[in-house]
């Protein structure tokens, strides 16, 4: 790890100045970066992928941007709330189980105790070519250099939302739950506060994979609003991975259902481990609307979800794995007692 200066931001304005300074450079060496739990930042600093000259602790803002609040209109989650705190919250487990499950299945207990929700949704890809600086060709790390994964080892890489410039998979779990529940992200910036659908936070790679979100210079995530709805309690997160714990998803599905008997009034589906961003599977949702949710119906929806999948050799198995994961999640959610 390279030397850096460490300080603490006493208030939001100080934190925003750091973010604006950091956003002024796309180079690996940036003037400053924010620290909450540090579970991604410090990891990438040790790998020499990120080289901030200054690291600024923002945990003094937890009183304003932490906590969990459940109201009749929905659930508010502070960006500085810890993953373990939210996963263990009784109200979240009862009324928004897909959120609790997505957090409980992520990382290790030690990391969940440290990691913040805001940092979690902004975590960087686990693509080995991004994380290993000996590989020069990585458009996320070194714009315009190429994508080594396209012709390299890409077993864990994306099959949805890819481009000719990047096939790196979005690695998180919690984001899929937010997408499936139509959450809103609260953002604080120099021009004031704004809100946008969480599904619009992350950018598809296109020809600029290094531009990962729509956050503007000086903006930070303040929290998340999850609206209440008849689908929230009948929700599941299913994660398939190479080992039972402490591994990233090979494929995952966040599912929320509103049922009339065995017939689907509305389905909300997001996929993980298979796409470049948290992926809303609207084609699968449309295939289920008004239909009986049995195994055949779930398989039709899963086929629709992966109809546009594009594989790259080592990850040719991913569409089938993703389909089976989604079928399992749909059928498990349908059987839930609420």
From TrEMBL:
Q: Which Pfam families match?
A: CO_deh_flav_C (PF03450), FAD_binding_5 (PF00941)
UniProt xrefs under InterPro entries: CO_DH_flav_C (IPR005107), CO_DH_flav_C_dom_sf (IPR036683), Diverse_Substr_Oxidored (IPR051312), FAD-bd_PCMH (IPR016166), FAD-bd_PCMH-like_sf (IPR036318), FAD-bd_PCMH_sub1 (IPR016167), FAD-bd_PCMH_sub2 (IPR016169), Mopterin_DH_FAD-bd (IPR002346)
On whether Flavoprotein is a keyword of this UniProt record, the answer is: yes
- Determine the domain of life of the protein's source: Bacteria
Residue ranges constituting the FAD-binding PCMH-type domain according to the UniProt record: 1-231
Q: Which UniProt keywords apply?
A: FAD, Flavoprotein
Tell me one GO molecular function of this protein.
Answer: oxidoreductase activity
Which PANTHER family does this chain map to?
Answer: OXIDOREDUCTASE, XANTHINE DEHYDROGENASE SUBUNIT C-RELATED
Entry protein name:
Xanthine dehydrogenase family protein subunit M
């Amino acid at each position: 790890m390279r030397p850096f200066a460490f300080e603490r931001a006493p208030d939001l304005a100080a934190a925003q100045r750091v973010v604006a300074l950091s956003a002024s450079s796309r180079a690996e060496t940036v003037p400053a970066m924010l620290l909450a739990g540090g579970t991604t930042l410090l990891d990438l600093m040790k790998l020499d992928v990120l080289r901030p000259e200054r690291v600024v602790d923002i945990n003094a803002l937890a009183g304003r941007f932490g906590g969990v609040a459940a109201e009749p209109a929905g659930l508010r989650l502070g960006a500085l709330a810890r993953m373990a705190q939210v996963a263990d919250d009784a109200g979240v487990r009862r009324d928004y189980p897909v959120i609790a499950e997505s957090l409980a299945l992520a990382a290790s207990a030690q990391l969940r105790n440290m990691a913040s929700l805001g940092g979690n949704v902004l975590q960087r890809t686990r693509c080995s070519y991004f994380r290993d600086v000996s590989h020069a060709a990585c458009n996320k790390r070194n714009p315009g250099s190429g994508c080594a994964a396209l012709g390299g080892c890409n077993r864990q890489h994306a099959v949805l939302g890819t481009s000719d410039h990047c096939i790196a998979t979005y690695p998180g779990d919690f984001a899929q739950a937010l997408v499936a529940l139509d959450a809103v992200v609260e953002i604080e910036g120099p021009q004031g506060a704004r809100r946008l659908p969480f599904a619009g936070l992350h950018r598809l790679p296109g020809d600029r994979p290094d531009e990962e979100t729509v956050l503007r210079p000086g903006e930070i995530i303040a929290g998340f609003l999850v609206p209440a709805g008849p689908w929230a309690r009948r929700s599941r997160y299913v994660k398939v991975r190479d080992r039972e714990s402490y591994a990233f998803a090979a494929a995952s599905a966040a599912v929320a259902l509103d049922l009339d008997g065995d017939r689907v009034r509305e389905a909300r589906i997001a996929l993980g481990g298979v796409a470049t961003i948290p992926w809303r599977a609207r084609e699968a949702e449309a295939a289920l609307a008004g239909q009986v949710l049995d195994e055949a119906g779930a398989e039709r929806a899963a086929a629709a979800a992966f109809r546009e999948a594009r594989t790259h050799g080592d990850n040719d198995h991913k569409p089938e794995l993703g389909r089976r994961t989604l079928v399992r999640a749909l059928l498990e959610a349908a059987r839930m007692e609420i």
